[in-house]
Amino acid sequence: MQPNKKVFVIGAGTALLAASLLAPSAARAYRAWEVERRQALIAAAIDAARRGDDSLPSIPLADPDAQVAGSSDGVTDSADPEAGERDDAALRAAYVAAELGIRTPQFNAELGRIAQQETQRWLGLGNDASVAPTDQDPFAVSPTVQGNAPWRSMGPYWARTQFNGTYYDAADTGRVMTIKVHPTNANLVYIGTSGGGIWKNASFNNSSQAAGSTPTWVPLTDSLGSLAIGAFDIAPSNPSVLYVGLGDASDQQFGGWAKSVDGGTTWTTAQILTAVHPADNVTVFAQQVREVTADPNDANHVFFTTDAGLFVTTDGGATFTIATLPKSAPYTTSREGTWSIAWLGGTSWIASGVYACPGFNGPNRALQIIGATVCPAPNQTVPGNLGDIWRSSDNGVTWTSVRDSGQLATLISAAGASGIGRMDVTVAPATDPATARVYALAGSQNENTGNSSTIGIVRSDDGGGTWTLKARVSAPATVLLNPTSRSTDCTNMNLGHGQSYYDLAIAVDPGNPDRVIAAGDFCSVRTRDGGATWENTSHWLPSSGRGTTSRGMPPMISGPLPYAHADWHTALVSRVGGQAVVFGGSDGGLFVSRDLFDRDFGEQVHWDFPDYGITTHLMYSVGSGDPTTGNPSLLYSGLQDNGTRWLLNSDDEGIATSVELKVWDQLIGGDGIGTAVALDPTGKNPTLWASVQGSRRFCRPRARDCGKATRVERGTERSNWLALQPLGDVEPFFIRYADLGDGWVLSASNQNLWRFRPTDDDAVLSVRLTTSPRGPSAASARPPRRHTRWTESRRGSTGCR
Fold this sequence. Notes:
It is a single chain. The chain is globular, with a radius of gyration of 26 Å. A hairpin with a 2-residue loop joins strand 17 (336-345) and strand 18. The chain is mainly β. Helix 2 runs parallel beside helix 4. The longest helix has 28 residues, at 24-51. The chain has ten helices and 49 strands.
């Protein structure tokens, strides 16, 4: 059995050992051990989910000591979110796998078939999407009397205010993975989201909308059987043809594709991407699609980058093969996962990806879910999968390795012991592909949480033949012109920090290849001189003060950065009437800047949020009222990286039309997960429950306005939603609740099953229903325990991510 933290706090030598842990070297070693142990537990949890086990190993959060602050009076400022309440993509993927199961290719193929069949049945009966057709199958008649009440979307469409430790004005939506602009009509913009499908806006750059009027978005792919868009593309030579890859790179696996020949109005049945891999002649199935790129000269020639290789079709999808991407020994027969694919011009292409472990049937299962694995010695000593870039000059028939040519040597040297792994590539194509400008943003080979980082940015001026280092994180590190001065969020070019396997985006201006935007988890940066200098252009929470920057020597405070949501996944620069329009896609939706390269200082850049009406938030749960209890309009939900949001209704400050506007305010930041409304036996006295990763929250409407994040009490701003953690236990990432109908809720921790009920003075009664050898030592049959381990955050907390 491996040691755990408790080993270090018992016995006569406790004080001495604890003191030794305070030494920097010992503390770093212990932290590294914790990180590696945690990553192994995540991989074990995914394997358990694949096997269908009834339980998963207990997985600690990134910093279990900083989840909920406490004090003798039960009221303190909230814990530092950078320590414990930030989004954790790796842990989230493990819990999603456990909750939803690992879908097989056969399951996904059948899901796509059924979805297409149902779409045709509805259309054949002349119905729109709001009214279900009468069932015509005599073998599938429902015993329930069929109603005719129409369904309507409740949003979220917009937000009046958002709160994440501090208030700010924004209108975030669900995670955006791909952004495309029609090649001949700049007003026609498409976005692909990881949980809401593809959406289209036909008047995006009209003067009124560019000035901030309400955009009009239309969903296109509700019939595909999966709303998890990994990537898509518009065929430049025939813009009516669209190809979509299903299954994003983080949470929702699918590994399928579909095609439209009428601009997205109708689609073929979703099919699974499968082919024989040339490395070992084994038939493989994709689960994730990372990028889709159609040949500008041939609408039938399309590339799909996936976790199972680079899929290619030359006949519009009738058949697929997997490209042979060369690798030197000991990786000669290893497969690869691919990330980027871009056209250089003519018949030349460039792609990026990572190698599977030698001797493994990979990229292995852990890589397909969270992007990290450990190749065993003596194959390599750095955890993770080696990154590479490949070039082709014959339309993808044959490829050469840039790593093998030695041209990544400067980047590999800058990476040091971290190695280079995933790389995001952007290209300014040229008539002569040998003169195409290419940039690559590189993450570390070691992708374990806590060790993952951004390595740097390299540039090529000859289509990927030779490369120079234009930004680096290691010494001598690239210095930002305007680093954040009140936080360490964005002080250097480590754009993705510990989530560089999850957050990487880079795009070059096609009209001026010296101008580039790059981004990761907290901030975006720009260069206007080909990478000679870089400066911040957005921040994830500037209203907290963390986005304040400094410039010059000696440093001078220069003001806050503009807001754009954390966790960038894609970026695009498009030319509209000669002007560069910059698009960003993140866990918070779509962001657009029309002056990013024109403003003298990054702090002056403007970002718009043209998200109104895009209902793509990734909802984990819904808490709702009931007409029989007099609160039919009560509706709130926990959302992935968009907090817990509350639907405004006619009782909220007299906003009589809010239900029609579908305005949902954000009350709690981070990953909102579980929600529930608990009523007493008479159907009254509700308690509203919510959660943010690893922390429970509750609010009693009789005591506080639960539709607002905070209140002012005796001159101090305090949270209306209180935080609770069972004493002596550890909370999971996904917290769920079940209303028991008697004022109590049922909920599980990492180790035990509990019942909770707040009292009128906001103490919480708790009953542990199970006995875990790792949990509290008290008997499971003990009477309700009254405790006040809750926190009430004061204004000034720095928010959750």
